[in-house]
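P.,

For your records, the input lines for the assembly:
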Amino acid sequence: MTVTPTALRTGTAPQVLARCRALVRPALTRAVERLHPWVGEMAAYSFGWCETGGAPATHPGGKGIRQALAVLGAEAAGAPGQAGVEAAVAVELVHTFSLLHDDIMDGDATRRRRPTVWKAYGTGPAVLAGDALYALAVETLAATPAGPDALRLLSSALGDLVSGQADDLLFAARPWAGPERVRLEEYRTMAERKTGALLGCAAALGALFGGAPAETVGALERAGRHLGLAFQVVDDVLGIWGDPSVTGKPAHGDLRERKKTFPVLAALDAPGPEAGRLAAFLESAGTVDEAGARRAAALIDEAGGRTAALAEAGDHIASVERALADVPLAATAANELRVLLDHLVDRDV
Amino acid sequence: MTVTPTALRTGTAPQVLARCRALVRPALTRAVERLHPWVGEMAAYSFGWCETGGAPATHPGGKGIRQALAVLGAEAAGAPGQAGVEAAVAVELVHTFSLLHDDIMDGDATRRRRPTVWKAYGTGPAVLAGDALYALAVETLAATPAGPDALRLLSSALGDLVSGQADDLLFAARPWAGPERVRLEEYRTMAERKTGALLGCAAALGALFGGAPAETVGALERAGRHLGLAFQVVDDVLGIWGDPSVTGKPAHGDLRERKKTFPVLAALDAPGPEAGRLAAFLESAGTVDEAGARRAAALIDEAGGRTAALAEAGDHIASVERALADVPLAATAANELRVLLDHLVDRDV
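Structure tokens returned:
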């Protein structure tokens, strides 16, 4: 066996993701096979393993960020990636559960260019399939020796996930201006819970299963949470200024849906005249047409909303780097975690 | 302190239920207070602690059978009831989660003479509140020393709950006659999962937290499962022949909704001519009027469906008795478990 320098052994992001998916897939398949067959089909559809009715898949599944974080967390602790597989299965099941239920709550009809589960199978069945995936995640962890610590990490992430989703739903009803408006600090709390908590849990669980000391588990959890925040803020920027041919989402989509995203909230907090004009526009009734959305995007930009969002993402990226540097980690895995970080936040913004 | 003979210390069912509710309430309140405030209000509404908007409660909550089983399970193991409180909190949270989600799936608009949570707060919020209660249940158990075993019991009950609900939803689409019809054995599996699993889990968890040996935990789980089956079959009888002024449900409600309940399935399996006439009636399109429902109820009775259901309930009651007699249990708690059993199945059937 030839000794390869670390830098060469480090995979690219698509390679890392594909390697982790391949490692986790058999265990994830076995877990899903334990489900009621009807529920199992909805789960397989969500994972992109099949189309409705069990027909062969014609659409790709998710990238599998969370399962990759769990595998890399175990490897970062010096264990083989296999040690993180049960953790990876659990977080992937929880992630899919949350997508299924969030799509119902948000009324989203498509995901990854296919009908969402509630659109394809009905609301009731989608509620049930989410519940089943969640139960399976708990069952998966309860069956491992790392049980109690692992379940504490998972249940705390789950609590955060639900609270973050509750905050997000409630933000929609809040005014755009005045003392009741949504503050950036509230947004950060929401995004850390809704997006950061499970990413942090994935990396931390992987490390725990890899036998890492508590300090390393904690550092990887922090890294994952900041990664989630960076990712969410970048996603917000793309939701306004992203190229539809790259994002697969309509131009100015988040503005048309009047979502209270980071760039918008930052712009509304800015001192200049643009904040007031933006608030007046967002408060106006009626649907947002393309010209209106373009004007709002320009106002947000002029008020510094895009710059503030990119600076925010940069802060969280730096926090991820610091968390990874805080503790001793296996070099290749730590590098691959950095590669994933770049891949997730360095999209065309 | 005077020594009171066991028989005198045994409470009546309403006394036992009230005592257990009072014992569990502080811990349940503390758990619910950890929820996001909005989600917490939906939880409090479900428990009958308040009306919508947090107004003082004007409707009673549930009886709290599951929490009582957990407390009595601990006491049956010779521990003080307090030892079963965390188990009681967890099963009560899971039960409420399942009511919230099942009401969405079944499209039920009222429960305990009030609008269901999805009717009062919206479908999305009700999905979220259910998820939050479930996460809180897992968190509650993960924080206890009995963690891993307890979570294995809970997650296996959860898996059963979801599978039972899936079976029940799928039964609705199956034909009334022919090889594809629902068999009694399938019904038993469904009802054991949907109703029995959590009752069994409640009693078993209580015993586990009370320090009972595995054999006792297993016996109490079996007792709870058979209790659930007996309860469900009695509920089915009341759903057809129950007095609306007592049940609070419309006369012949289950027939009007064409539910595939035990007495109906037993009648359809009977050899006489009534089975065919009943199947033809149930297969006919259109709404079921009062005269039609009365005719169907008579056919089911003539085909022996009511008798078969009552015999089935009797079998499960005997199985509960056998399970309780199988292992050494503290006398008062064992008696109170029997009192509860009578209370649950000895309704006017």
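Two observations worth noting. Chain B touches chain A through 43 residues (CB under 8 Å). The longest strand of chain B covers residues 110-111.

Regards
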